[in-house]
Write a structure and sequence with these properties.
This protein is α/β, with parallel strands linked by helices and about 500 residues long. It is built from 18 helices and 18 strands. Adenosine-5'-diphosphate (ADP) binds near residues 26, 307 and 368.
């Protein structure tokens, strides 16, 4: 520990995904960026991940630095660097658990892998083993930073050890809880004391997430508003009581956005542009419309949605609003994948309105960049949003977002009102109520502002582009939270 500052020197950052090695969503972005930002603040950080096949096939050398046998299996620890950085990554290699093709969490049938409980319990055992410096690596962290249910058993297991490091558990999305049937409990080699509503039991099921919430020294979420919201029945996913019980240890820190989301240097764009030289944004719009086979109409707004096609993201609300949005008139581009019913509905709309709607089903990082740059207005009607990244990217790219006032959206977008226009803080349009009628009104409001380019829209774009969404800022907030966690544990 840095005794002068009471800051942890060594931090073990445990996650089930990290960009660019493997990513399915926002957690991957955070785990690929925050540890790197912490390292640049002079912390000694190790990122620990499962050795999925996709990671082992990723270019870059890895060496085996340890191996040991756990109750759930034999593992090797392979060390490599996170691509493009000096950050050391430890891979928990257990072929029967992680050496398979496809998504980390879901099989080809779109359902969770049937052995997810065993897979992530083994991962948690390996992380705990490393955290207690039992792998012969002579590296004991001062703090273990765990993320989401896949790491939830780590704080629980470490709580059994006197000489353990401090633990922080970050909830990136409370809706994903790692719930499994009771019968699995006895197969995971957990102490029977954990089978209790005060520990891992959740109404007769085994909850990995509760391991983190109940046992970690501190808990946080990825925005201050979401930290408040999850203490209410509306957003608490059945855990609001427990979260209220731990509210003194619960806080929120906004995510940052990665440096490669920068329109001034983004190599994926047709033309780079910036706050000082914003002209190139128009070229990106033209190129995007051509790429999507939509007619180039520069005088009507191009709106965009990028994200998972699931209820959380409000895609159903947007689908209901779409006929009126098209009539404004506007063009709309969708990039996403998820539930088949939404994919089909979107494809049908695109067929009916080939000049106005373009739909790309799938995950396409490069296209996501070109959409952020080429669109005029970004749509994010999420029902709940722990932090959300796209509304931050879109502000950075001069594409003001229309967002539902929840979670991280409420914390990162300032609604346009006479007052916020006057004081120069407006960055988008914020609406209350997850309903299509309200969304339509908000989109109309954005379209009116868009129509007054000089007076309203450009100031809005500029203010968004000025925001500091850097990881460095978030990392400093995390350091402060780590310090507090260590102090409380010592005290
Ligand atoms: P969540 O983690 O709930 O999916 P976030 O907004 O926090 O939502 O992060 C989602 C991340 O994944 C962003 O980087 C977003 O651009 C990206 N993303 C989501 N869907 C797609 C897609 N179909 N193609 C490319 N990128 C996507």
């Amino acid at each position: 520990m840095d005794t002068n500052e009471n800051l942890p020197r060594k931090i073990l950052f445990a996650s089930s995904e990290a960009y660019p090695l493997i990513k399915t969503g926002g957690l991957g972005d955070v785990s690929g960026s925050l540890p790197v930002a912490l390292k640049s603040l002079h912390r000694d950080v190790r990122l620990v991940l499962p050795a999925y096949r996709e990671i082992l096939n990723h270019k870059g050398k890895s060496v085996t630095i340890a191996q040991f046998t756990l109750p759930l299996g034999h593992v090797k620890i392979k060390e490599r660097l996170l691509p493009g950085t000096r950050l050391k990554v430890w891979l928990v290699d257990c072929p029967s658990c992680f050496d398979r093709s496809g998504s980390p969490y879901l099989g080809e049938n779109g359902l969770p892998w049937p052995d997810n409980a065993e897979r992530y319990a083994l991962f948690c055992q390996a992380v705990s083993h490393l955290a207690l410096d039992k792998a012969g690596l002579e590296w004991q962290p001062d703090l273990v930073h765990c993320n989401d249910w896949q790491t939830g058993l780590v704080p629980a297991q470490l709580s059994l050890s006197e000489s353990r490091p401090a633990t922080l558990f970050t909830i990136h999305n409370l809706a994903y809880q790692g719930l499994f049937p009771e019968t699995l409990f006895s197969t995971l080699n957990l102490p029977w004391s954990f089978w209790s509503p005060h520990a891992l039991e959740y109404y007769g099921q085994l909850s990995f997430l509760k391991g983190g919430i109940v046992f970690a020294d501190r808990i946080n979420t990825v925005s201050p508003t979401y930290a408040e919201e999850i203490q209410t029945p509306q957003f608490g996913c059945g855990l609001d009581g427990l979260l209220r019980h731990r509210k003194d240890k619960l806080s929120g820190i906004l995510n940052g956005i990665d440096k490669n989301w920068n329109p001034a240097q983004d190599p994926l764009l047709t033309k780079n542009y910036s706050l000082r030289e914003p002209g190139g944004k128009k070229d990106n719009k033209k190129a995007l419309l051509r790429e999507l086979h939509l007619p180039v109409k520069m005088n009507i707004p191009l709106m965009a949605f990028v994200g998972r096609l699931v209820e959380q993201k409000g895609i159903d609300i947007l689908l209901t609003a779409l006929p009126e949005i098209v009539d404004l008139p506007a063009q709309v581009v969708f990039l996403g994948s998820g539930e088949k019913r939404y994919e089909q509905a979107l494809r049908q709309f695109a067929k009916r309105h080939p000049e106005q709607i373009a739909v790309q089903i799938g995950f396409d990082e490069a296209l996501a960049h070109r959409i952020e740059a080429g669109a005029d207005i970004f749509l994010m009607p999420s029902r709940f949003e722990p932090c959300g990244l796209n509304q931050m990217y879109s502000q950075r790219y001069g594409t003001p977002p229309v967002v539902h006032r929840v979670g991280g959206l409420a914390d990162t977008v300032t609604d346009t009102t006479p007052a916020t226009l006057r004081d120069g803080t407006a960055t988008g349009v914020v609406f209350d109520g997850a309903e299509s009628t309200v969304l339509i009104e908000a989109v109309k409001r954005a379209t009116l502002l868009y129509g007054q380019q000089k007076q309203y829209w450009q100031p809005l774009q500029r203010q968004g582009m000025r925001q500091d969404f850097s990881w460095r800022r978030s990392a400093k907030n995390y350091l402060e939270l780590y310090r507090q966690t260590l102090l409380e544990r010592a005290g």
